[in-house]
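Continuing the batch. This is chain 6 of the set; chains 1 through 5 are on the previous pages. Same settings as before, nothing changed between runs. Recording input and output for traceability.
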Amino acid sequence: MKIPAIQKLRQKIAANQPVFGLWVTLESPSITEIATTMGLDWVTVDMEHGHLDWREVMEHVRAVRGTETAIFVRVPELHQSMIKRALDIGAHGVLLPLIRTRVELELGMRYGRYPTGGLRGVGGERAVKWGMAFREYLQAADSQTLIIPLIETREAAENFDDLLAVPGLELIFFGPADLSASYGHLGEWEGPGMTELILNLRARARQRGIGSGIMSLDPANACLRRDQGFNLIGLGSDAGMMIRSVNTAFTALGAKPPHHIWF
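Output for chain 6:
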């Protein structure tokens, strides 16, 4: 019997096991289908950057149905309709970009929760199986939905303890490049002092029982992130991993110089 995706994710995190995922930026749902077939724990579909529309996001969400892979949507901004829509089409949670203050995070939490503790509207869409699982979904949704803030600004780092104090927070996710840019190191994945800062914040989150996620740059970096104690480890993006693989082949063949790619 398959374990529900969020339950499996939580079990692994509670057992201090890393959970590995893929960042999806391309439109084909076959990418997510391959990720689930390979047994990845989670997939994040990125709507903040790039070109994906809601129909394409829905197809990625559909590809994980009936599997033990959790799917998250990074919404473009902290906006009620976007969070509601991502959850209504069946995502297990959302990543909130550029969260800076406790007030913003509390608002994002409320957008992703039903009344009386939240503001999410009740609909009859995919999440409730078009009304056929109405009560079952509504009764479990708040406890089975993850709202994950991205820690990617100097303000978030400076307000970090306030963010950690928000009720219901289980996971955070670091954005090293944006965090570096906010400290004046635009174009660097981890600028001067950022490694130490991120590890300090990760440790403070763990002390509060809150897990942390981060993207890796290559397999060696993924191993490093695992050893540093990160819970959610992104193995790369779909496009980035393809480029990385072609770079490896080009290097082995001596055909072309490799192209730089972050993840």
